[in-house]
Design goal:
The protein has 473 residues and is an alpha+beta fold. 34% of the residues lie in helices and 20% in strands. The chain is elongated, with a radius of gyration of 25 Å.
Length: 473
């Protein structure tokens, strides 16, 4: 009896498991820490290693793309079927700093396996989740008998994600034609838990700003002048207090313009997740939940926009008293955005709001950092459904849906390429991203291999592209 496609994939993965883990461990030994200039040669070595391994996998085009910072890796393997959809896989090959002195039980750049877990910096974030695409692609070809993928497959693996991706958008804009795709798959994400596989459907965007408030030209005596001149520290406190109303809604006019609301189906899916609020609070090191009225905790952190005070300062901060009216104060704010919100609109709304909240005599300077757009893929999108089906086949159980409360460079891909962003990751909260003793569950890593091995055929079979984009090599 011949094998089914699913069993053929599993057989291939089982046969090549040891070699796959050996190769991944070799890559993990390269300390590609992008935040440390001293490791710049290692980041380049990591890019060169990956480019070589992708060529060995079979990609006819593998290139290292230079930026003003660390190099990225690009690869392209067109399908024999010209009408197939084009898919771009995104990930990163740089890692966070790590040292034994941070609390690691082992050398973070000397991978070790204990109890079927692979420990090393980058095991989950993100080298393991990038590398599972290589074995998955080979399993896909073996199980289908194809000589090329069922989709036009591209990879873009950047080298600065752990440093804030400062050159990523420029990189994407400069290579937009070659990166053209019908869908983007981000493998830099995770699942709900080891026993509850999930697919993320979106990330929030981000706008950050710093507000400097200036009153007197210097600190002045509060007895001689207090109560008769405006105090910038008081103005800062009043500004922060005015940021939300009594229902924890952001008070900036126009802040909620254009928001795509949660559908009833999405709210029902979120409610199905095995969420333990008490455990979540312990993880948050907090003692109560709080947020916008009418929404659950998960809805607040995944599907609603927020305004947070990241810092507030002004006046004397030393020991004892110093009775002054301070000359200046500072407020740092961040705004998480959801689908339908435009960062430039939010920035302008904040600019328009602040002057009316300040008394005469208080001057202000407003500075914005780099903004990130939110991204969201509808539940009925055929590419998302293909990811969900493929993961369900690999795990042998239903797959839920989550969103991500944080923000990332995936939105730049959506924005520049005008393509939906999908998330395919197998990492779990216990993997310890950015923490000592980062690890990846080997069985889950191989489920990621299996998912991607099944995905390309599913996408090609169930997603018809009316006008496939050009796919230059």
């Amino acid at each position: 009896m011949s094998e089914t496609p699913d069993s053929a994939v599993r057989t291939y993965i089982d046969t090549h498991r040891a070699a796959f883990l050996e190769d991944l461990s070799e890559w993990l030994r390269i300390p590609s820490v992008s935040a440390d200039p001293g490791h710049a040669p290692d980041v380049r070595r990591s890019a060169e290693w990956l480019a070589g391994k992708l060529k060995e996998t079979g990609f006819p085009t593998t290139e290292i793309w230079e930026t003003d910072g660390a190099p990225a890796v690009y690869a392209h393997w067109p399908s024999d079927d010209a009408a197939a959809p084009t898919v771009l896989v995104y990930g990163h090959h740089d890692v966070q700093p790590a040292a034994v002195a941070d609390g690691w039980h082992t050398d973070p750049f000397a991978p070790e396996v204990h109890e079927n877990r692979l420990y090393a910096r980058g095991a989950a974030d993100d080298k393991g989740q990038v590398f599972f695409h290589t074995l998955g692609l080979r399993a896909h070809l073996e199980a289908t008998g194809r000589t090329s993928p069922a989709v036009h497959l591209k990879l873009l693996i950047e080298g600065e994600e752990e440093s804030g991706s400062p050159h990523f958008r420029t990189l994407v804009e400069n290579h937009a034609q070659r990166l053209a795709a019908d869908a983007v798959i981000v493998s830099d994400t995770g699942m709900w838990s080891e026993t509850t596989p999930t697919v993320c459907t979106g990330m929030r965007g981000l706008v950050e700003c710093e507000i400097e408030l200036h009153g007197p030209d210097q600190d002045i005596h509060s007895g001689s002048f207090g109560g008769a001149v405006p105090n910038p520290a008081t103005a800062a406190a009043r500004l922060v207090a005015a940021l939300h109303d009594d229902h924890a809604r952001v008070s900036v006019p126009g802040f909620y313009d254009g928001i795509v609301p949660l559908t009833d189906a999405e709210r029902a899916l979120l409610a199905e997740l095995p969420f333990d609020e008490a455990e979540w609070l312990r993880t948050a090191k907090s003692h109560a939940t709080h947020g916008e009225d009418g929404y659950s905790t998960l809805e607040r952190i995944w599907a609603r926009p927020t305004a947070e005070v990241n810092g507030i300062a002004g006046g004397y901060q030393g020991a004892g008293g110093k009775t002054v009216v301070p000359s200046s104060a500072l407020v740092k704010l961040s705004f998480r955005l959801v689908a339908g919100q435009d960062p430039s609109h939010i920035e302008q709304a904040i600019r328009d709001w602040i002057p009316g909240r300040l008394p005469d005599g208080i001057r202000h300077t407003l500075t914005f950092g780099g903004a990130t757009r939110p991204c969201l893929t509808p539940l009925d999108h055929p590419a998302l459904q293909a990811v969900t089906r493929s993961m369900s086949r690999a795990f042998g159980q239903p797959v839920g849906h989550t969103r991500e409360g944080g923000s990332g460079p995936a939105a730049d891909l959506q924005d520049v390429l005008d393509a939906p962003v999908l998330f395919l990751g197998i990492s779990v909260p216990s993997d310890g991203w950015h923490a000592p003793n980062e690890k990846v569950e080997i069985d889950l890593l191989l489920k990621g291999v299996e998912t991607t091995a099944l995905l390309w055929e599913d996408l090609a079979a169930n997603w018809s592209i009316a006008h496939a984009p050009s796919t230059p090599s």
